[in-house]
Structure formats: C-alpha cells, structure tokens
Amino acid sequence: MNTSDLIQHLSEKSEISKTESKDLYEALTAIMQSYFVNETGIVIPQFGSFNIKEKNSRQSFNPATKEYVILPKKLLLSFTPAMQLKEDLK
User: Fold this and answer.
1) Among 41, 50, 70, 74, whose Cα sits 20 to 30 Å from the Cα of 63?
2) What is the pTM for the complete model shown?
3) How far does the chain reach from its first CA to its final CA, in angstroms?
4) What is the mean pLDDT of residues 32-43?
5) pLDDT of 54-80, one tens digit each?
6) DSSP string for residues in the chain
7) CA separation for the pair 63, 43 (Å, rounded)
8) What CA dihedral angle connects 33, 87, 83 and 81, to 10 degrees?
C-alpha cells in the first residue's frame, strides 16, 4: 500500500473527501515527525508503539582504505507491535 492508496481507503472508510483525507494524512505525519525529532515516542493503543533508540558510537573497519573509522552515535526509530496486533496477524 502506498500513500495514495492509504488516502483513498481513509476517504472511503471515514466518508470524507480525498482532499480532506490527504490533509488529515499530512497533519498526522507532521505531528508524528515532530515527536520523533524531539526524541519522543508515540503509543497507539491496539496498534503498537514507535520509540527512539540511541545507537552508541563504535569503531568500524573500512576495507577499501584498510583504516579503522569511528562511526558517530545515531538515533533509530523502532516499532513494537501491540499484543492485539500480534494476535491478529497469527
């Protein structure tokens, strides 16, 4: 499913226009993105939770230059499905 399919299904399910569905989709993604940028997770009951995890800096080997380099720490987005969703997928 891509973005246009999601907007189409949202429009049909909620009985609103595609334009309103697209606005709703864009507002939701903007809100979620702002929480992720601020390193805050989001919990959606009966669906799952999105969390920000920090991956520490580490040493890595570059085989092309045969040198060791330090990879900086970075933030990762992770998703943990809710138990209800796990059960529904079985």
Assistant:
1) 74
2) 0.72
3) 20
4) 90
5) 999 999 999 999 999 999 999 999 999
6) --HHHHHHHHHHHHT--HHHHHHHHHHHHHHHHHHHHTT--EEETTTEEEEEEEEPPEEEEETTTTEEEEEPPEEEEEEEE-HHHHHHH-
7) 41
8) -20
Structure tokens at 16: 């609103």
Give dist(CA 4, CA 8) in Å, integer: 6
**73, two tokens:** 């720490």
- The residues pairing with 70 across neighbouring beta strands, listed in sequence order, are 59
Q: How many CB atoms lie within 10 A of CB 7?
A: 19
